């Protein structure tokens, strides 16, 4: 498990895992797939309007998400990331196809093995429509924060909703399931924040919400993809049932500046 401090940034559902992860000292763009470096490529294309940083390191506003990327790991990139205007003690999260070497004064809080899954079909999955889905707005953020803290789908902050396309299911006014989008390394659109309140599991809400996201992404001419912890067997099985296929393994590195 992560330290208590790490959990304060919405990453407390992850675990520290280094065994079996190969280390990458540097990475280059040669022959790389756009999804091999999804955060950087999203900040250069579909999420460009949210990008902060420079040509060597880019990131989202801290209130939106802790994700950051570089075109390739470099001394200049690390220095520019270090100079980012962030709240004291905040973390950055980087995605890569292998474990990265982190220079001083950075410290690794966790390196987390994920699967990156892609939906390669032209039609959205057909699922039972058992509940009314509602579009979520800023008024729903407190309930979204409460649900994501309870279920731990990954980082979710006060302005994560700015990514847009969030839908949910409510039961007697209570928000019990949500799904949204996050990274957009075009033409790919990431389905994210998939979570259901524990008291409402087994009702097909996640499948219904994911199918809705897939349908909307396909209508926009995009390709759906997502990330999932490699030990989350139930989620992987659901995504496979809906038509997603594992493309590659991804390492999620959670890091912070040393105090």
From TrEMBL:
Q: Which domain of life is it from?
A: Bacteria
Q: Name the Pfam families for this protein.
A: FR47
Q: Where do the N-acetyltransferase domain residues begin and end? A: 131-259
UniProt xrefs under Gene3D superfamilies: 3.40.630.30
Task: List the PROSITE patterns.
Answer: GNAT (PS51186)
Q: Name one GO molecular function term.
A: acyltransferase activity, transferring groups other than amino-acyl groups
Q: Which CDD domains has this protein been placed in? A: NAT_SF
Q: What is the name of the protein in this document?
A: GNAT family N-acetyltransferase
| The species this protein was found in | Filimonas zeae
């Amino acid at each position: 498990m992560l330290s208590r401090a790490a959990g304060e940034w919405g990453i407390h559902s992850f675990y520290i895992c280094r065994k079996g992860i190969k280390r990458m000292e540097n990475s280059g763009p040669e022959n790389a797939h756009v999804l091999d470096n999804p955060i950087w490529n999203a900040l250069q294309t579909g999420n460009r309007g949210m990008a902060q940083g420079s040509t060597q390191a880019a990131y989202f506003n801290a209130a939106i998400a802790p994700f950051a990327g570089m075109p390739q790991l470099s001394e200049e990139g690390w220095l520019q990331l270090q100079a980012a205007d962030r709240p004291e003690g905040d973390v950055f999260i980087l995605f890569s196809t292998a474990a990265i070497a982190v220079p001083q004064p950075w410290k690794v809080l966790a390196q987390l093995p994920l699967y990156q899954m892609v939906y390669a079909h032209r039609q959205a999955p057909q699922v039972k429509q058992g509940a009314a889905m509602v579009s979520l707005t800023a008024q729903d953020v407190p309930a979204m924060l409460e649900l994501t803290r309870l279920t731990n789908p990954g980082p979710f902050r006060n302005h994560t909703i700015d990514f847009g396309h969030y839908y949910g299911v409510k039961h007697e006014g209570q928000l019990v399931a949500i799904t949204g989008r996050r990274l957009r390394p075009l033409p790919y659109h990431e389905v994210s924040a998939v979570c259901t309140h524990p008291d409402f599991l087994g009702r097909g809400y996640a499948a219904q919400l994911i199918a809705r996201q897939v349908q909307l992404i396909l209508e926009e001419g995009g390709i759906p993809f997502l990330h999932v912890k490699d030990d989350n067997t139930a989620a992987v099985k659901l995504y496979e049932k809906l038509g997603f296929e594992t493309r590659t393994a991804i390492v999620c590195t959670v890091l912070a500046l040393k105090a």
